[in-house]
Amino acid sequence: MTIDVTNPTTARAGVATSPMVVEDRANHTFRVHRAAMTSEAVYRAEIERVFGRSWLYLGHESEIPNPGDFVRRPLAGRPVFMVRSVTTGQINVFHNSCTHRGALVCRQDSGNAKVFSCFYHAWSFDTDGRLRGVPDREAYASGLNFDELGLAKVPRVESYRGFVFASFDPDIVDLPTYLAGAKDYLDLVIDGCGGEAEITRGTNEYSFAANWKLLVENSVDGYHAQSTHDTYFKYLVSLGTDLQGGVDGRAITLGNGHAVIQYTAPWGRPVAKWEPLFGEDAREEIARIRADLVHRYGDERARLIAETNRNLLIYPNLIVNDIMAVTVRTLYPAGPDRVDVTAWQLAPRNELRGLRDRRTDSFLTFLGPGGFATPDDIEALESCQQGFAGGGVEWNDISRGMGRGPMANDEEQMREFWRRWQQQMGTAADLENVR
């Protein structure tokens, strides 16, 4: 529920409460209490109420193209792995825990296997999770049902255009309903890849000392770009990019906590807008890609795909940055003041080598862990977290753009996130419960 009051104290079910998210639409103000970023109790509640009851991005179908292919990764702190069944070709997602005594059964980050064997007592399971091997099976009494001791599946798994999501909530709505308006922007990303996309080899993984929600805000924040990333813009100018036109766009709420900022910008896009950074030899190739987009989708959709940038938030923690490259990024809390980040690059399947090289260079130059943007953002967000520790100021203001059609450098996209967060957290986000 969204709290829309002129005073931070309101009533929920007849009980006076002080929610951490306070929206006053009449006076165009929106505030978030800083305890949302510092409280251990809030962090623990988020694991259950937000990450335990949402669809969470797990991986991309292209990461496991062949029967037996698998990847393992933590999902909101829980070890799981995703594998393509050898028998059916379907994608299965299992809790990464042996049903005998609990040890991990998938011990590599990726690979191909027909059987997953627990190294502790050598129980083994196939790609559909069935228990296949038990050493000295005869030692067990007849009352033990081995058919019930297969790997535990994550309750819900669905995919949309190759993006695989999982949820620990068996009663959650189906994925298309959950994605709501975000589907349209994922469609733009995939259509821009010619309809077939893949995660490229290599992963960026890093952690830093700030609350995860600060990185959510930052990832869809157009307001900080010019001040925080000034060095990058100077770099583009040095290469011949004309930045005089500036950035023009808007923030769009998409339902269920999802939001996007979509904007035209003067820098280039591998699909399909040339700039000096790509080199003269790329002009003809990029023009061919643009013509193909027009042929497939018509002039207007081709223009939208080729010339507009998108920073897309899929609640609670998936960011798809379709800018000078396409970055897919997840952010998970490791505590109230610690966030673990994993980032991949998405690209058209079978992309020509020259285009892929330029795309990867753009990806790493701006959003890589040693690029122009990421160190700047980490410094800014850690600085915020340090400022919270000092006390003295209780509330963050997220009111920019209220009372007008929100632009890309306004904050309506962040407000959409916080409204959904407050709704899911409920009384766990009341100040009375964390002070």
From TrEMBL:
* Xref: Pfam families: Rieske, Ring_hydroxyl_A
**Organism from which the protein derives:** Mycolicibacterium hassiacum (strain DSM 44199 / CIP 105218 / JCM 12690 / 3849) (Mycobacterium hassiacum)
Concerning InterPro entries, the annotation shows: ARHD_Rieske_2Fe_2S, Rieske_2Fe-2S, Rieske_2Fe-2S_sf, Ring_hydroxy_dOase_asu_C_dom, Rng_hydr_dOase-A
Query: Do the record's keywords include Membrane?
Result: no
Q: Name one GO molecular function term.
A: 2 iron, 2 sulfur cluster binding
For this entry, the protein name equals Rieske domain protein
UniProt entry keywords in alphabetical sequence: 2Fe-2S, Dioxygenase, Iron, Iron-sulfur, Metal-binding, NAD, Oxidoreductase
Q: Which family does it belong to?
A: Belongs to the bacterial ring-hydroxylating dioxygenase alpha subunit family.
Source domain of life = Bacteria
* Gene3D superfamilies associated with the record: Naphthalene 1,2-dioxygenase Alpha Subunit, Chain A, domain 1 (3.90.380.10), Rieske [2Fe-2S] iron-sulphur domain (2.102.10.10)
